[in-house]
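Notes from hallway chat w/ T.B., transcribed later so I don't forget. T.B. wanted the structure written out for a chain they're using in a teaching module, and asked if we could keep both sequence and C-alpha cells in one place. Agreed to drop them here.
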Amino acid sequence: MEKAVLKQELELLLKDLPEEADWDDLMYKIYVRQSIEQGLRDSEKGNTVSHDEIKKRYFKAE
C-alpha cells in the first residue's frame, strides 16, 4: 500500500475510535483490518478452501 494511502486509512481508523480508546484498541483495529485485507487478497487469488473440504478435514469421525 502506498504511504499516502496508508496514512489516510490510518486517519480513518483513528477517527472511528472512541475518545477513551487506548493503544490496545488501536492495535486490535489494525489487526482486524489487516486480517480482512489478507483474506480478500487470498480469495482473489483463489487461495480458499470450500466449506465441504473443511468439514472433511475437521469432522472425520462423523
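Follow-up for T.B.: The radius of gyration is 17 Å. Might be a good example for the class.
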